[in-house]
Amino acid sequence: MTEHLDDKTIIELFNQGGNDANSAFTQIVSHYGPALYNQIRAMARNHEWTNDILQNVFIKVFQNLPTFKGESALYTWIYRIARNETLNFLEKEKRRTGIDIDGALLEIIAGHDVLDSTSPEQISQLLQEAIETLPEKQALVFQLKYFEDLKYKEISIRLKTSEGALKANFHHAKQKIEAFILTKLNH
Amino acid sequence: MEQENNIFNHLKAKKGSAPNHSYFENLAKTIIAKEEKKAVIVPLYKKPVFWLIASAASVALLFILNTTQTKNTPSPLLALNEISKSEIVNYIDDNIEEFDNYLLSQYISEKLIEESKTEIIVATLSVDPEPIKELDKVELDDILDYFELEEIDIYELEDELYN
After folding, report:
1. Which of A58, A68, A102, B156 has the fewest CB within 10 Å, making it most exposed?
2. How far apart are CA A27 and CA A14, in angstroms?
């Protein structure tokens, strides 16, 4: 497997067009695809939808990469596209067919008064809804840390954000998610 | 206690089940193929390069036309430079009668206008009376007849004139 290039080099390579552009794009998909897949799947909840959404996301990345100005990290930019694409896709599909869930994202460890009386599928659904309500950066950090189990240092490099800021984002995200889920379960 | 009640202590995220590496390589290839196909199908008129070339061609065409027209219709003064002095003199000699007639007609028409103005002035002046001079030309009998016709008393008129 080839070494991953930094954002600037990838974009320069892509803007050269031809085989260089194809090579840069393949590297973007290979490097960021798996994490992005899991993040989309956490919201879309099945492989077919995730696959469709992911394809749309990377088509948009391919078409719009020349306009990317580098004001944020490349992954943050791609995640923004993925989040919008996922939410729009789910909005349409929910109206059309209803949700078809592949499986739960979480397991419940017994011992919590409220969680013990719920199913993993229900909690997974609530977690997905809670993530949708989060600010974009908090949602991104939460997903990379909680589902991908990446270290803060890795996330810091990928998102070009300090570790302190990432810890704060993750902490706030968890608090909001917990409040959201408990509020829903208590009503 | 709060730590124990934290729901994240009782939840465990399942490991993401992202497909293997070949899935993403194929995804990249599929998208590249789609986009390259689109790039071929894009109509010519939708390409910015087409409009840039068309604009440049239009500007060049206008410039060429403008230059050609300028060359075809030189200034009259510039045209005079191309005619020799002898040619001009010969032309005037050949057409001198026409020039004379023209000048004459111009002169005559101006003269007529001057005369007509004079006539009007004379006519106007004739209204201005010079009774003494005019009376010399009139017969005495005619004057007397006029007085009689108008029933003017000569003696009263004499008193009015000389008193």
Report:
1. B156
2. 10
| Cβ–Cβ gap A34/B9 under 8 Å | no
Q: Is A25 close to B25, i.e. CB distance below 8 A?
A: no
Return phi, psi of residue A76, to 5°: -60, -40
Say whether A112 sits in a helix, a strand or coil. coil
Which residues are B13's β-sheet partners?
A106
For chain B, how big is the Rg over CA atoms in Å?
A: 55
ipTM of this complex: 0.79
Distance (Å, whole) CA B57 – CA B54: 5
Report chain B residues whose CB lies below 8 A from the CB of A115.
Answer: 7, 10-11
Asked if A104 and A19 touch (Cβ cutoff 8 Å), the reply is no
Average pLDDT, chain A: 88
Q: What is the pTM of this model?
A: 0.58
CA B146 to CA B129: how far, in whole Å? Answer: 18
Q: Find, among A185, A100, A39, the residue nearest to B13 by Cα.
A: A39
Is the C-alpha dihedral spanning A183, B1, B2, B4 positive or negative? negative
Residue B24: name the closest of A35, A20, A81 by CA: A35
Tell me if residue B20 falls in helix, strand or coil.
coil
pLDDT in tens, A39-84: 898 888 788 889 999 999 999 999 999 988 888 899 999 999 999 9
Each residue's pLDDT tens digit, B55-110:
899 898 888 888 776 666 655 566 666 677 788 788 777 777 666 666 667 666 66
Residue B125 has pLDDT above 80, yes or no: no
Interchain contact, A110 vs B10, CB within 8 Å: yes
- Cα separation, A163 vs B75, in Å, equals 79
In the block, residue with structure tokens 């995220």: B13
Residue type, B107: Y
